[in-house]
């Protein structure tokens, strides 16, 4: 048993999609979240830069009482590959949990993956899936506009601009006959309905954040690190840009976050 918090970080607020799932499946855990809102996006930057930022984000979380660290960011997780940046406590990115869930979900062995340009360039998800099942066929597409469309609020199911972008980006994955699609970036669950409409019925969507939350629960259980608290846990948020900007945008990702305790910090 351990009542320290779960540390979660992301390039910005997108990682709140993972926090939402953590709160749902581990309601008694405290969460300390760091969103690097001053330096988002990571998804268009070089591997070296993303890794440097990730080290700083992790160092920030480690200054708090945390028992596990989750890189909720698809781009960070992809740049890390097999590297484990923390050795004295459980650590996970989002790639392996999502890849494992997709391999388990596919019926025809054809899986699509969408993410930021850096994520797709890295081949991280393909690599993870081929390690799990060498027979799956993978079609990968970078969707650079999606993060911006979500950040600027073009998220309504009927939104014409986002729908057009989704049709364009998802066409090769539809043509490949994928029956499973990994949403390999924090922001994509917010436009899940549009992606589902464009992909059509019968396609399973895998949210990397949601699968990672389930995986984190298994890790904590296996290592006997779950909290024994009986009252609900609470979340504390840190951001590298302003608190007011967090409050304006957080409700797109997690309604409760907009009302939570938020601090602006330098890292
Ligand atoms: N958090 C990033 C990811 O999941 C998306 C936003 C960014 O580009 O930093 O890849």
Outline the secondary-structure elements.
Blueprint: E1 5-10, H1 16-25, E2 31-35, H2 47-62, E3 66-71, H3 74-80, E4 91-92, H4 95-105, E5 110-115, H5 117-122, H6 124-132, E6 137-142, H7 144-151, H8 160-175, E7 180-183, H9 192-199, E8 204-207, H10 208-222, E9 235-239, H11 243-250, E10 261-264
Parallel strand pairs: 1-2, 1-3, 2-9, 3-4, 5-6, 5-7, 7-8, 9-10
Helix pairs in contact: 1-10, 2-3, 4-6, 4-10, 8-9
This protein binds D-glutamic acid (DGL).
Characterization of this structure:
- It is a single chain.
- The chain has helices spanning 16-25, 47-62, 74-80, 95-105, 117-122, 124-132, 144-151, 160-175, 192-199, 208-222, 243-250; strands at residues 5-10, 31-35, 66-71, 91-92, 110-115, 137-142, 180-183, 204-207, 235-239, 261-264.
- It has 267 residues and is an alpha/beta fold.
- It has two domains: 5-93 and 210-264, Rossmann fold (3-Layer(aba) Sandwich); 95-209, Rossmann fold (3-Layer(aba) Sandwich).
- The strands form two sheets. The chain has a six-stranded parallel β-sheet with strand order 4-3-1-2-9-10, sandwiched between helices.
- β7 (180-183), α9 (192-199) and β8 form a beta-alpha-beta unit.
- α1 crosses α10 (208-222), α2 crosses α3 and α8 crosses α9 (192-199).
- The radius of gyration is 17 Å and the shape is globular.
- The two termini are 30 Å apart.
- The mean pLDDT is 96.
- It binds D-glutamic acid (DGL).
């Amino acid at each position: 048993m351990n009542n320290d918090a779960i540390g979660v970080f992301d390039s910005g607020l997108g990682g709140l999609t993972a926090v939402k799932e953590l709160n749902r499946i581990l309601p008694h855990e405290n969460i300390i979240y760091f969103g690097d809102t001053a330096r988002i996006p990571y998804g268009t930057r070089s591997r070296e830069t993303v890794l440097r930022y990730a080290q700083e984000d992790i160092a920030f979380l480690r200054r708090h009482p945390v028992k596990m660290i989750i890189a909720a960011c698809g781009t960070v997780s992809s740049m890390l590959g097999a590297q484990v940046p923390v050795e004295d406590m459980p650590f996970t990115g989002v790639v392996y949990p999502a890849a494992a869930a997709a391999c388990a979900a596919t019926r025809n062995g054809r899986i699509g993956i969408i993410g930021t340009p850096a994520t797709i360039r890295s081949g991280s998800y393909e690599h993870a899936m081929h390690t799990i099942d060498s027979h799956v066929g993978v079609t990968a597409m970078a969707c650079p506009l999606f993060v911006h469309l979500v950040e600027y609020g073009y998220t309504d199911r009927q939104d014409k601009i986002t729908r057009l972008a989704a049709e364009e980006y998802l066409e090769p994955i539809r043509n490949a006959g994928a029956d499973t699609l990994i949403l390999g970036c924090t922001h994509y669950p917010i436009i899940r309905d549009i992606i589902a409409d464009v992909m059509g019925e019968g396609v399973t969507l895998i949210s990397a954040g949601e699968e990672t939350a389930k995986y984190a629960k298994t890790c904590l259980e296996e290592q006997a690190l779950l909290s024994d608290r009986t009252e609900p846990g609470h979340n504390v948020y840190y951001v590298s840009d302003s608190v007011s900007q967090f409050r304006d945008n957080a409700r797109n990702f997690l309604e409760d976050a907009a009302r939570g305790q938020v601090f602006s910090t330098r890292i």
